[in-house]
Amino acid sequence: SETEAVDPIDYEEFVSQQSERDPLAQVLDFPEDDIEVNLVPRKIRTEEHVVPEEPYSQLDPTVQNCVDCYTSDWVVVNRKYQQYSSSLIIRDRGEEKVAVVQNTPRQQFECDDTPDPTPEFEDGDKSDRQSWASFDIRTAQPDEPVPGLLDKVDIEVMDTLNTNRRLDRRPESLFSLYPEQDEFDMLEKRTLAELPTETQGHRILVKCLELSLALQDIEPVFASMALYDARERRKVSENFYFDMNTEGVKKMLAGHLDHADISSHARTCVFDISTVPGDLFLVVKLEKVLQGDMSEAIEPYIKEERNVEKVRGGALDACKRLGQYRMPFCWTAIELAKIVRGIPLANESGSDVDSTGSNSLDRKSSQGNFDQWKRAEKTGSL
Asked: Where are the alpha helices (DSSP H) in 37-169?
C-alpha cells in the first residue's frame, strides 16, 4: 500500500554485496592497516609501583580495579590515516587552504563577460534595441571559427595535446578550495588524544634538621607543613607530618601511641608545584597535647621567667589523661619567592592564639593572616 513504511537500506550489507564488482571497493571499505594497537610502559618515579602489601588475589575487587588503573601500562590505539579525518584536517590545513586560495588564479568563464540581459533604455523609441541575444540570423555576425576544428589529427596526438592542455595552469590541491563541512555534518569531531603524562612543574626538597623552641624537650610537639597560595586563598599540597621529638619525650605518650611505621620517621619531603610560584608560602604548624585554654598553654613559652619543672609536670599529667587529643600551638610561614631569589630567611614566627582550631589556615581568614605576616615582616617583628 502507499502508506507502508519503507525500511532504509543497510549500508554495510549493500557495500559487502557490491564491493566485489565495484572497481573502487578499496575506497568504500575500511582500510585494514589503519588501526594499530601498541602497549606503552607507564613511567614512574620509583623503582616499583606502590601497591598494598596483601596479595593481589586477596584484595577487594574495588581495590583491584584501583591497582590496575594506576599500575597498568598504557594501551595506545594509533590510526595510520588519522590526518585525513575531519577532526584534524580542518585544524591542520587552515593555513594551507589560505595559501592555495591566494596562489590559484581566478577562473573566468564566458558568462562573466556577457552583458546584462536587461539593459536600461533611456527612450524606447529612439534607442537602439539591439540586445546581446539576437534572433535575427541574417544580420547576426557569425562566431570566429575554432582553429583546427575540422583538421584531421591522429587520435594519439590529440590525446597528448588534450593532456598537456589539462595540465596547463592547473591549480594544485583543488579539493582544498572546497568549503569545510558544517559542524552538524561532520562525522568525527574529536581530536587525537595525547598520552597521559605527569605534570612536570617545580619541585622543592625540604629537610627538617632542627626544631628550636623556647622550652626544649618539655612536652611532645607534633609538626606538619604544607604549601599555601595566598593569592588564590587555597591549599596547594598535602600535609607532611614529621616527628622531631626525642625518645625521652615520646615516652610521655606511652599507652596512647601504637607501633609507628618506619615511614612516619621521615624528615625529608618533596613538594610538587604545578602553579605559578607567586604568593606561595611554606607553612609549618605545630600542635601539642590538649591542655585547656590556648593562652595558658603558650604562656610558659612567652614569659622570660618560668618554672620549668612545673611546666614539665603539667605536660606529663596532660599526656597521661589526654594524650590522644591535640590542640593548636603555633605556626610559621616561609615565602618561597625569597628562596628562589636567594634572600636569607629571618627568624619569623607566628602564633595561633586567636584561632579556634588547628585548621585555621584553611579558612578564608588565611589571606588576612598572610597579609599581616607580610606587614610585620617589613618591620622586623611579628
From this structure: 61-71, 86-92, 94-103, 155-167
pLDDT at residue 355 tops 70: no
Question: What pLDDT is recorded for position 234?
Answer: 86
Kindly give, in sequence order, each residue whose CB lies less than 8 Å from that of residue 331, ignoring residues fewer than 6 positions away. Answer: 283, 284, 285, 286, 350, 351, 352, 361
Spatial separation of the C-alpha atoms in residues 310 and 173, rounded to whole Å: 92
Beta bridge partners of 288: 221, 327
Contact 50, 97 (CB under 8 A): no
Q: Tell me what the mean pLDDT of segment 245-273 comes to.
A: 81
Band of the pLDDT at 285, cuts 50, 70, 90? very high
Question: Which of 16-20, 243-247, 293-297, 355-359 shows the lowest per-residue confidence on average (mean pLDDT)?
Answer: 355-359
Amino acid found at 69: C
Q: How far apart are CA 216 and CA 283, in angstroms?
A: 21
Query: Amino acid identity, residue 54?
Result: E
Q: Which of 339, 361, 349 is nearest to 205 (CA)?
A: 339
Beta pairing, strands 221-229 & 202-207: unpaired
Tell me the three cell numbers of residue 10: 543497510
Cβ atoms of 167 and 227 closer than 8 Å: no
Residue-wise pLDDT for 88-112, tens only, equals 777 777 777 777 777 777 777 766 6
pTM of the model: 0.51
Beta bridge partners of 283: 226, 333
Give the residue ranges of DSSP H helices in 236-365.
247-250, 294-302, 308-322, 336-341
Residues whose CB is less than 8 angstroms from the CB of residue 184 and which lie 6 or more positions away in sequence, other chains included: none
Residue of 257, 324, 326 lying closest to 291 (CA atoms)? 326
Q: Among 10-24, 260-274, 345-359, where is mean pLDDT lowest?
A: 345-359
Cα separation, 68 vs 49, whole angstroms: 11
* CA 332 to chain centroid: 33
